[in-house]
TrEMBL record:
CDD domains xrefs: ENDO3c, NUDIX_DNA_Glycosylase_C-MutY
Organism of origin: Hansschlegelia beijingensis
PANTHER family from the UniProt entry: ADENINE DNA GLYCOSYLASE
Protein name: Adenine DNA glycosylase
Residue intervals of the HhH-GPD domain: 46-195
EC number: 3.2.2.31
SUPFAM superfamilies named in the record: DNA-glycosylase (SSF48150), Nudix (SSF55811)
Length: 360
DNA sequence: GAGCCGTGGCC
DNA sequence: TGGCCAAGGCT
């Protein structure tokens, strides 16, 4: 696609807007200050598919517990998973820990000031490598995230649907990038997408690139970016088991190290599948129970939506005598320690549904 | 390329 | 209310 000179977006206009509207964020250096590559990296991993609002508290807790990459590399993976619980996409936490160890082992504890070397680190893909290179080291990397995709496809009214449009978007983003201030330009593009060029109801009247924007000129800005239709989300069903001792301790397990919720803590559950029938009697639902007990079914269901399927969980609860041994692979966790477990949200819902800690 | 991989907020 | 969305990466 050719870009006419008179409609080409001027990077200076965007940088001037950025200087006036620069947001203060926990991981962002003050103007004139040098960015800390560790903080830039940590924030970029947390911000993958995650809102600023959700990531903020996690970032501050991680920084307090792990003030530098060396402290994170030296800590057990379980500590990182516990701190990550609730933020989702848990492979990020596993890769975060692996990346810290790689930086400690391969790079002497300092992040490399090189996009290609950053890209080779666990959990660091094309976007994150470019973002760290630009923001932490002010290298001229082309940073393309979901914000930049939206801004660029609107600027050029790009009809190609995502994800096929990615190479063209990268080329166009490189066309409008300035030689000076690559880090500020990258953050300005993302801030513009996050605050002005939003998915719905973009504030074009406040946009420094309103004039050269092809989609705005046509009045079609909200229809970009074009996207391929999404696959439907199937429903799976299953049974979760809540087992409590008289002292309130609950039976928990650790999940397989990889895959869905990999490495995290869970309540015992049966298989999750579309053909599980939750209308069966309790005696049948208890077929996959972790131990023999007098099960009672908690009324209602726990529902949870994952990225690629929805889940409906029936909850069977039981009280077992003091001294009941934990079955193989499971462990007793005191009620007071439940909050410190690496429990993903779906299992916190199960605990709440079963009335964890409630005396009857 | 496409499926897998969480969660909470929004309208 | 449910579909969509958020600073993606891995296989």
């Amino acid at each position: 696609m050719a870009v006419a000179a008179e409609t080409r977006p001027d990077p200076a206009a965007l940088l001037a807007w950025y200087d006036r509207h620069r947001r203060r964020l926990p991981w962002r250096a003050e103007p004139g200050e040098r960015a800390d590559p560790y903080r830039v990296w940590l924030s970029e991993i947390m911000l993958q598919q995650t809102t600023v609002k959700a990531a903020g508290p996690y970032f501050l807790r991680f920084l307090e517990r792990f003030p530098d990459v060396g402290s994170l590399a030296a800590a057990p993976l379980a500590d990182a998973l516990r701190l990550w619980a609730g933020l989702g996409y848990y492979s990020r936490a596993r890769n975060l820990h692996a990346c810290a160890q790689a930086v400690a082992a391969r790079h002497g504890g300092r992040f490399p000031a090189c996009e290609a070397e950053l890209l080779a680190l666990p959990g660091v893909g094309p976007y994150t490598a470019a973002a760290i290179a630009a923001i932490a080291f002010d290298l001229p990397a082309i940073v393309v995230d979901g914000n930049v995709e939206r801004v660029v496809t609107r600027l050029f009214a790009l009809e190609t649907p995502l994800p096929a449009a990615k190479p063209e978007i990268r080329r166009l983003a490189g066309l409008i990038a300035p030689e000076a201030r690559p880090g500020d330009f990258a953050q300005a593009m993302m801030d513009l997408g996050a605050t002005i060029c939003t998915p719905r109801r973009p504030a074009c009247a406040l946009c420094p690139w309103s004039e050269p924007c092809a989609a705005r000129r046509a009045g079609t800005q909200e229809t970009f970016p074009r996207k391929a239709p999404k696959a439907e989300r199937p429903t799976r069903r299953g049974v979760a088991f809540w087992v409590e001792r008289p002292d309130g301790a609950a039976l928990l397990r650790s999940r397989a190290p990889k895959g869905l919720l990999g490495g995290m803590t869970e309540t015992p559950t049966g298989r999750w599948a579309a053909d599980v029938d939750l209308t069966l009697p309790v005696s049948a639902l208890a077929a996959e129970a972790p131990l023999a007990a007098e099960w009672r079914r908690t009324p209602g269901l726990v529902t949870h939506v994952f990225s690629h399927f929805a889940l409906e969980l029936a909850v069977l609860a039981a009280r077992v005598p003091a001294g009941t041994p934990a079955p193989a692979g499971a462990r007793w966790v005191a009620a007071a320690e439940l909050a410190n477990e690496a429990l993903p949200s779906v299992f916190r819902k199960v605990a709440a549904h079963a009335g964890a800690g409630r005396r009857s």
